[in-house]
Amino acid sequence: MLDKKSKEKIIKKYRVHDTDTGSPQVQIAILTEEIKELTEHLKLHKHDYSSRRGLLKKVGERRKLLKYLQKESFEQFKALAEKLKLKIATKLQAEEEEEKLKEKKYGVVEETEDTELIADATEDNA
């Protein structure tokens, strides 16, 4: 479990505004740190099943919060994942690089309002 000082440090680093203590970003950051501590503990104490159960609960809670943040604000989710160096961040970066390569290779043009209007007009005529 995190001591008070390290928890306050994490809150200061990841808070959204000055009085923020419970935003998803802060909760995810705290859970990530607790997960790291429990993982290290379990490397030394392999038969500590109570701690293993606690670890799984924390991982599940973090997963729920990450899913919520991804749904509500993808940009904040992405920034937090990169800051915390979560596996999902490397996955997202790989996907972005792959998209850029495809765009470069095929010259993909992003859809704009004009192309949508043209598509709507052709559907109406048909």
Structural overview:
Keywords: Ribonucleoprotein, Ribosomal protein, RNA-binding, rRNA-binding. Belongs to the universal ribosomal protein uS15 family. One of the primary rRNA binding proteins, it binds directly to 16S rRNA where it helps nucleate assembly of the platform of the 30S subunit by binding and bridging several RNA helices of the 16S rRNA. GO terms for molecular function: rRNA binding; structural constituent of ribosome. With 126 residues, the chain is an all-alpha fold. It has 2 domains: 1-85, S15/NS1, RNA-binding (Helix Hairpins), CATH 1.10.287; 88-126, no CATH class. The chain is 79% helix and 0% strand. It has helices at 4-14, 24-44, 49-72, 74-84, 87-106, 113-125. Helix 2 (24-44) packs antiparallel against helix 3 (49-72). The radius of gyration is 21 Å and the shape is globular.
Determine the strand fraction and express it as a percent band: under 5%
Any idea what the CATH superfamily of the largest domain is called? Answer: S15/NS1, RNA-binding
CATH class of the largest domain: Mainly Alpha
* Class by alpha and beta content: mainly alpha
Number of helices: 6
At the fold tier of CATH, the topology name of the largest domain is: Helix Hairpins
Question: What is the number of beta strands?
Answer: 0
Mean pLDDT across residues: 87
Rg, Cα atoms, Å: 21 Å
Report the span from N to C terminus: 65 Å
General form: globular
